[in-house]
Fold:
Amino acid sequence: MSETLESYQKRWGHLRKVLERPGPFSHPEFEPSSEILDFIMTSCKILVIGAGGLGCELLKDLALMGFKNIHVIDMDTIDLSNLNRQFLFRHKDIGSSKAEIAASFINKKVPGCQVTPHFCKIQDFDESFYRQFHIIVCGLDSIVARRWINGMLVSLLNYEDDVLDQQSVIPMVDGGTEGFKGNARVVLPGMSACIECTLDLYPPQVNYPLCTIANTPRLPEHCIEYVKVIMWPKENPFNTSLDGDDAQHISWIYEKSVERALQFNIPGVTYRLVQGVVKHIIPAVASSNAVIAGVCATEVFKIATSCCVPLNNYMVFNDVDGIYTYTYEAERKSDCLVCSQTPQVMEINDPNTMKLKQLVELLSENTSYQMKSPGLTTIIDGRNKTLYMSTIKSIEERTRDNLNKSLVELGLRDGQDILVADVTSPTTLIIKLKYLVDDVEMK
Amino acid sequence: MSSPAPKSPEQTDKSKKYDRQLRLWGDHGQNLLENSKVCLINATALGTEILKSLILPGIGSFTIVDGEKVTEEDIGSNFFLESDSIGLSRAQVATQCLLEHNPDVRGDYIDESPEHVMSHTQDFFNKFTVVIATALPEKVLIPLSKYLWESNVPFVVCRSIGFLGYIRLQVKEHTVIEAHPDSENPDLRLLSPWRSLREHLESIDVALLDQKSRSHVPALVILFYYLTKYKELNGGLVPKTRQEKDILRKMIRDSPVADEGSIKLLEENFEEAIRYTNTCLAPPSIPHNVQAILDDDCCKNLTQNSPPFWIMCAALREFVECEETLPIKGSLPDMAADTTSYITLQQLYHRQAELQAEIIYRKASDIARDLGLPMDTITQNEVKMFCKHASELQVIRGSCIADEYERTRLDLSFYLEDPDSLMFYYVILRGLERFISEFNTYPGQFDDQVEPDVLKLKGIIGKLLSEWSCSQVLRDERVHEVCRYGGAEIHSVSAVLGGCAAHEVIKLITHQYKPLDNAFIYDAISSNSATFCL
Ligand SMILES: [Zn+2]
Structure:
């Protein structure tokens, strides 16, 4: 060890004061001692998901809060537009892995800190990987990824005689920002509100109706969507699918959008707006990421050390007008799709007329499901039957006709279990059909 | 054959790098940022965290004033120092580390204490756009705050101690044109349409439209049509009460449907018209804050030194005296309609706004000329922007920190009546500063002095409260907690505060978004915060 004991004691003197002294606001189980800092530095293992705006800040914050054993996952590479806030990256790093560059920066800057990068998707790891961590922190811009990791942590829970084994709970601290707004939350899977319990907090994406963009455009966005959704597939200008990061593609969309806007006298198509609409760009600044990551890192420190009681359990931040925060307890949903341990029942008014297509739409559009491309299977007479699956081309073609069949025609009975797979969850969800009519004529 | 396609504008590397923030404060905000000069006093962890979130978005330059040398404790909490730099100038090491993070930003440092700089270099601090200070002792804070107040340089004072954070903004006068409110009502002037709008609206007989045209007519036209009908039936009066508006809403809902017989749902545009009855039937009024600005002495008594903001306000005042309303915003919210009907309406609003902005521009130019100011004092684009945001104008007049410290009576009793108020932490922080002045250490800095320091700090706080004639009693546990910190700076708490303070500085530089008025306390234990006006 290169550090002498004295310099070590001085260097970490800030943390030692709050860890080695009693405090009136600490957790009831808190016992001040030097062992807590030892635990943080030698045994405590933290996973950071995302090495972007929040991730860079989180890695710095955790490293200076004494954590030495940190893993970070990010599948992205560095882009020029990241540099206004993702401060661990330089111009020369453009194109490299975010996780790898961020890890090496921290390891170089904070002696003794060991950040292990994973340049891949979270879905590339299974439960044995996630089980090794004490706490997981998310700095993600994707709701799907957040839901997936949430589902993973819930799947790691052990229940014995319906009693949750506390040892199997891996706390998750989650942060998000958008412009000058942000939120931070602590999720104790199986114990407090999980991501799915509060799914309605995420607003549904704005979609312009097709007839508006095709026939009665009024906004510059309508013109851009028209070029993106209708003209691009038709003209296929570069013989490839649209890539928002390809300047040539954006230029083509821009030029065609300007033409269309001129034709309709619609003002306001700019290059920046075109990029924003095509890539669904969310504005971002360094300051909001610093705030939310700082709040998340503080919570990780509280959970790991019990030096004070953790956030219970949701904090909102907004500094558009002054500086505003609001803290409240998000509530568990008693029938949460993921964490409630209760079978999901879907009530069906009339299975004679309800088509499978409508069931798929319900799973996609209902605020408490919000699935992306649900695949449905079931068991009929002891045999597996795929009802519909859009993600694999050959199966999609084979099952497409089922979409227009009614539930009864498909042989689904009252009380039938439907197994649903979707990108938003690492595990298959079971939904039980409940028919509200008696006169179901099964063939 | 066909006309040449429009060329895509060339995007510079800079606009690509700053794309995500340009969507928040625009190229004009970025321009102000890139021309700003920021001074940081004391490169503590909090200090460098603030600068980091200013350097990344691209301020023009920074100067660090710090006479301290790097210590082991600094390395343990401050990311922007090198671990092998112990004993070197903290100002120098922090400057070098920070500069790595954005090659567009210039930075230098003064390896001297702020006291030394103040007493040896005249007019050092007043050349900055903003001055930021962290961990500043009272004896420097007070004269510096007076000096910056007189010089009209915004001053941001921050402190991070344990799980507690504090930000105080000192601005003599700060003006905001673009406040970017989260929500605002559309400005449609249906009750008093100008001539071209009125003529357009009157030319459409909604009741006579066939089914197809009916579903394409903008909600605004529908609302105006039935409003006119309502007025005809009610002696020219517009609906004011809820019941009266219900009658109007019913008229819209019951509007004859062209296609007879079959049951039809009300079209989307008619539903929209019903919704607009909630927000668009109030007579145009001038918001209190804007009226106060128009009545302000700075607006009434212009001088050669009046900034463009006040000259434009004076022009606006003349306009309002004449028209009795603010200029129209000129934007039309999206509503279900066919392209032509919508664009026709949109152009009417846009043209009216241009016309009014032109009038105000001429008035402002006349005022500037009468004051003997050069022709280019105010530009047409500036006035257009000003008129578009006339209803969100803000003037913030703060208070001088030195006054707050030297005042014999500080009326905090309103806040202190709530025993959970975070204002108690303000009182403790004031006590802490006095403790540092008296004993030259943080309370609880040494392990064997925690208990005695609790007593000393309680004594100091009791004295302060009685000086301010406050009768409230502080809960002991909070004093204990602050002594537990012993001056520790927790990095993640400084990171939170650093982000908050940096954005306040950006607001001050860009004159966009409304800054904190004027003190902020962050309690990281409960993750709560509060704002107080001192
Ligand atoms: Zn849940």
